[in-house]
Specification:
This protein is an alpha+beta fold and 327 residues long. It is built from 15 helices and four strands. Helix content is 60%, strand content 6%. Helix 10 crosses helix 11, helix 12 packs antiparallel against helix 13 and helix 14 runs antiparallel to helix 15.
Length: 327
């Protein structure tokens, strides 16, 4: 249960394989192996997504999948009422990305692994097996195994029944983002910004980005805080393929975009510095400059004392390095 992921749907097999198409990535249970394909399917069926995240083979994950996928509830309830996705980060899925027989299939599994990793990151997945309920757009509704006590199909059914009212509330607010004036829509989108836990808010980045495009003049005053979520997730995607330089460049571009206010500009700049520091890229002085720019972007910000400490420490390291080189 404690296997950590650092890091963001299936219809029952025999019934729906034809409608899914020959090229759909499905596992042996008929579940979507790609969260992107699951969302594409759910957007047509308008069914919420029941997402499972595992790392098979492992004793805990194997027992979990057997208990869920071999159950009558999976066949008679879950597969009929939800779009089911099964993201697996185990060896067998990794091997599919190295398919020697077909470069095209290998590429598709590699793309699925990337989109699956992004979803796991957006959900702040810190343990497996994990189970989530998402909207048909891929937005977070509920964590169905947060306490690690979902081990049977009946447990899962109980959890799903318990979050029905929450799901209906989210669907109602999503509907409000599609109607009325731009102002009405922005207020509806802001409801998600204010009410979704920070752990899961990055699943809503497409909605926030939609808001940025709706309110190009920022009459709502929400564009900055919406856009910063998009900018950070965009950088994380590059970081996940170890392209730290592009991740940093994308954050710099966001800081210069004119869309961010002081607090949000501060956030992208210190995130850029953090990427460089964590990945040991660039000299200490260069990294210190990012944190210093973050301070200047919002001098009254709550994190300024911590940022100043980092700047001072990096400058000491930079000075020590120069002294060592001169010696």
């Amino acid at each position: 249960m404690k296997k950590t992921l650092l890091l963001i749907t299936a219809l029952f097999a025999s019934l729906f394989l034809v409608s899914c198409g020959k090229n759909t990535l499905l596992d042996e249970h008929g579940c979507f192996e790609s969260i992107e394909e699951a969302v594409n399917s759910a957007s047509k069926s308008k069914k919420d997504i029941l997402l499972f995240i595992t790392q098979c083979p492992s004793e805990t994950c194997d027992a979990f999948t057997q208990a869920i996928f071999a159950s009558d509830l999976f066949k008679d309830d879950f597969s009929k009422n939800y779009t089911i996705a099964h993201i697996d980060f185990g060896e067998s899925f990794a091997e599919k990305t190295l398919n020697a027989e077909s470069e095209k299939i290998s590429q598709r599994y590699s793309e699925a692994l990337f989109s699956n990793s992004v979803m796991a990151t957006c959900l702040s997945t810190a343990y497996i097996p994990a189970a989530y309920l998402l909207t048909s757009e891929g937005y977070y509704i509920a964590d169905l195994n947060y306490s690690g006590d979902t081990s049977t199909a009946i447990d899962l059914k109980t959890k799903l029944d318990a979050v029905k009212e929450k799901a209906q509330n989210i669907h109602s607010h999503l509907a409000a983002t599609k109607t009325g004036t731009v102002s009405n829509k922005m207020e509806a989108i802001n409801w998600f910004y204010e009410n979704i836990s920070p752990e899961y808010i990055y699943t809503y980045v497409p909605l926030f980005y939609e808001g940025c495009n709706l309110d190009k003049k920022d009459e709502s005053g929400y564009v900055s805080k919406f856009y910063v979520k998009y900018a950070i997730l965009d950088a994380v995607k590059f970081a996940q393929i170890n392209d730290i330089a592009t991740a940093v460049a994308s954050l710099e571009a966001a800081a210069k975009s004119g869309k961010l206010k002081g607090p949000e500009k501060q956030e992208v700049l210190y995130q850029a510095g953090a990427f460089l520091l964590q990945n040991e890229m660039g000299d200490y002085e260069t990294i210190a400059n990012y944190f210093e720019a973050a301070i200047l972007a919002n001098p009254e910000g709550e994190v300024v004392p911590q940022l100043q400490y980092v700047v001072d420490y990096l400058r000491i390291l930079s000075s020590d390095s120069q002294d060592y080189i001169q010696e």
